[in-house]
Amino acid sequence: MKKRQKLRKGLIIGMFLLFPVTIYYFSPVLFLEGAAAGILAGSAVIFGLQFLSSLVLGRAFCGWICPAGGLQEIAINFRDRRVRRRRIRWIKYLIWVPWFTFFIFLLLQAGGIRQVDPLWRTQNGVSVSDIYSLIIYLFIVLIFVILSATIGRRAGCHSICWMAPFMVIGRKIRNILAWPSLRLRAEKEKCIQCESCTNACPMSIEVMDLVQVDKLETQDCILCGSCVDVCPKEVIHFSFSAGK
Questions:
Q1: pTM for the full model?
Q2: CATH code for 180-241?
Q3: φ, ψ of residue 185 in degrees (nearest 5)
């Protein structure tokens, strides 16, 4: 494993270990409860930052620091099965659209934003501070573990993640406006079609096929760099450039 992947794995698994502290900052429920009270809770702030970061960094958050992503990459060691993404990809949008619409409705009902409180409902910034919050934490972890065990690699990212659409939308805006941002590029003439990139991708993307058509942009890419670091011919590389 190359140094970059050791660093990435260390970061993302470390974020999972911190999940009992941070889970409320990613909570879809506190997102709504805060809106009903006219408060932008920690999760609303984080979701907003995820959207803004995706305008330049795509879905790098998912690949490098997402706690649930860290959990699922640990699970790959026990259930390494590629996922048929298109069959389950639509589920997260079926969740996200009514959920985000309800957030807007609650915020309007509350008379708009009256307060921004990133630490709302936490205990001095710590999420899991009592038996109730511990049960919520264990329930969320169990859901992601079950999905990984039954469906395969990062199944939760594909199917139920309520955060991914914020970054997918930001990425689409970035592509439409075609401003410089972090992305992957490939030199397809160097490709020997060994499929190492495809086999290494934690998001089950057909990377080699995308290299052949010279189009590495896909909504599922989390810019983890696994394909970059496993390629024996250094076909794929990171680039901060404009394009679609």
A1: 0.94
A2: 3.30.70.20
A3: -125, 160
